[in-house]
Structure formats: C-alpha cells, structure tokens
C-alpha cells in the first residue's frame, strides 16, 4: 500500500470514483468532506463505499472530457489561472473566510462550481428588456394611430367635397333653372293683376293685360308638377319662396347632407391624441432606459446569490451601457453611442408626428378651398338672379315712363293720351311690385327657412366676409402644411445622419482609435442641429 501511494505521488493521474479528486505531483491529495466520517451509511472504514452500491450522480461525478484543463493537470475546484482563482479567493490570494471555515458546508461551497446555464439577468438588464419591449410595441402603435388619423382626415375631405357638390347643385337648380322661370311668371302675373281693373278702358290696356295674363298662364302650364311653380311655394303677392324650395330639395337628400366633415376631423384628432400618448410612452421608456444604462445598484443593495449559485449577468449590451462599458472601450465612446441610439429611437416618432400635422393641415386647407369655391359660386348665382330680377323691374319702370312721354309727344288725341297715361301709371305700380317680388325671391335664406347651415353661410348677407375669412384660413392651413413638411424633411435628414453616426461609432470602437470618435461626434452634432431647426 505504501508503494502504491509513493507511485501516485511520483506520477500524476486522474481518479474519478464518484466524486472526482485530482492528484498532482508535489500537491496534497484533495479529499472532500464526509468521505472519512465514521458511521457513514454508504462508506466503509476507509471511505471506499460498498462494492456495487449505486451512488447518486452529482455535478462533481460527471465525466470530464479531456481538454486543456485536464492535460494541464487542472480542473474546476482546484487552483487555476489568475482570473479563475480570483473568483474563489480573496484579493490577497487566500480563500474566503467561508471556505477557510471548518465543516462540510464551507468545503462543499468551495468545491461546487457556478453553472453558466443557470445564470440570471440583473435587475437593470431586466428593466431595460421591459423598456425595449414597451418601445417596440408603442412605436408601431403610434405610427398606426397617426396613419388612422391621416385616413380619417382624407375621409373628411371626401365628405366635404360630396356635401359641397350637392349643395352647389341644389343652389344651381333653384336659383338658375327654376328661379328665372318663376320670376317671369310672377312678374307677368303682377302686371296682369295691375292691368285687370283698366283693361276695358282702352284697347292698349286690354292688349297689355292679355299679353301678361297669357304669358303667365303659358309658363305656369309648361312647368312640371314638382317644380318651383307649384302652388305650395307661391306667395300671394310676392312670387315664389325660393329658400323653402331649397330646403325641400335638401330634405330629399338626407345622405349627402347628413355627412359631418367637422365631426370626422374631430375623430381624426382623437387618433392623433392616441398617437401622441404612444409617442409619450416611448419617450418615457427611452428616458428610463437611459437612466438604467447609467446606473448600477450598489453592492450593498444587490441580492446575494441563492443556494443554486446562479451567476448574475450585468454587462449585457442591449443598449450601450455607460455604467458598465465593455473592456477596452472608453466611457465617452459608450455615452456617445447611447446618445446616437436615443436619437435613432426618437427621431422617427418626430417624423411621424410632423407627417400627421402636415396631413391635417392639407386636409383642412382642401376643405376650406372646397367651401370657398362653393360659397363663391352659390353666392354668385343668388346675386346674379337678384340683380337680373331688379333689372327687369327697372326695365318695366322705364317702359312705363317711356309710354307716358310718348303720350305727350306723338300727337295723339287727348282721349288716347289719357288712356296711355293710365296704362303708364298702372305699369309703374306693376314695376314697383316686380321689384318687391325680386327682393323677396332673391332674399338670403335663414335657419328659419329650414335650410342647411352651410347653405345659409354660403348664401347669406355676410357671404363676402365669409369668403374673406375662408381665404385667410385656407392660406394659414397651407402655411402650416408647408412648415410641417419642412419639419419632416429636417427630421428625416437628421435620422439619416444619425444612422451614419452609429456606423462611425461602431467603426471607431471596433478599431480602438479614440481619434476616430471625432467623426461620429460631428455627425451627431449635425443631427442635433437639424432636430433643433425642425422644432423651431
């Protein structure tokens, strides 16, 4: 037995009978505690165990494949390289106090190695993972909300165009197609009513009466039953009610007049608010991630490893970590890399918001332009009818004055001259009534006439001020769209330069040249300048 022990001391060999032990020349044999305790149920007097007894497989009893550590005479649990010994020894090269203590627990903890497969992330890394998940989810949600807002704004423009087209078509029908015919009927009827009492006094009066009466009857009979010449729209002395006719046409078209572009625009604004909420969530997550990347928990607040001795991963570079920069990389380079990464996360959201503002301004400008065109055309059609009707009344009055002058200068008999003057006086009164008819039929509609609010604004007395206000608002919205477009252009250029800066930082860090950091610093400064210009 002594010779066998002497041979083992001279030649190093590996013996793995259950719990492995390493025998190295010139070093004492490592014996694990508990193997030589008397009375152990599975061990003999020398600790060799009962022959054939099954032993539980532990981490230490697993087969160790041949490798550099085995050939060099070192395995886990023994003295190895400096970086390996540092994990089991103190700074003075001595084992920790827990390993130097007597008893089984201290020796077992010294012999059991850390299993990398059971490692866990530190609290800072886990917080950053959660924040990255929030950013990854909130960024597309914000873009989706702004996209929905843009589609809603375009839908509002389509609704406005449909509504204004229908309004303009109805105004054209009432004030261009029906109004002129109805006014001619009303004027002829007024002239016939004025000449009826004197039609038996002279042939001139009788002839004028018959002309007026037949004209009114023929025009009224040629009209359709559902047209403006229906008796439902006729006023006893003032012709026909054009605003009421317009209200009935609008009531027969509930679908186009039921569109609400303003409400649709407000719905788009709700989507924009949701997009801003998601963007703010991204911003808060980015700020929290930056704070977590720059902070490491003090050693006193760290949770000690559990019984399974799970390794804590603290240097995972999900984003640049100035708190624990990689080996060989300066803290300044890590800070610069983190700043560039933050710009890459934030600038796309700024571009999305600028695009949303541009879409809204363009939609509002298009709506105002449509309203402006409709109001101008509708107001022009009403005023054209009103001016034409007043000119007709003035012409009738001039004809009455000419008839009276002719009775004095044509050399007719006194009786004939008297009859001509009577007809002239009647025609003058008829011309005054025709003027009142023109004013009544060409009056601007009000809400009391049950006319649509847009039609009231377009055809109202204040339409000229409305047109001026619409022009001003349309120009303002165009300016907002131009500024938003420029802002988006600046932010897009800043994002592109930031991407270049990130590549330059990676090149400088990988090559290890600090002087190369001047290029990414310049690129980041240009990106920041463009961002400030976009905000201003």
UniProtKB/TrEMBL annotation:
Domain of life the protein comes from: Bacteria
Entry annotated with the keyword Membrane: yes
Region annotation (Disordered) ranges: 1-107
Keyword Transmembrane among record annotations: yes
Keyword vocabulary terms for this entry: Membrane, Transmembrane, Transmembrane helix
Amino acid composition bias (Basic and acidic residues), ranges on this chain: 54-63
Transmembrane segments: 274-296, 335-357, 489-510, 516-535
Listed Basic residues bias regions: 20-53
Name of the molecule in the record: Predicted protein
Organism: Streptomyces viridochromogenes (strain DSM 40736 / JCM 4977 / BCRC 1201 / Tue 494)
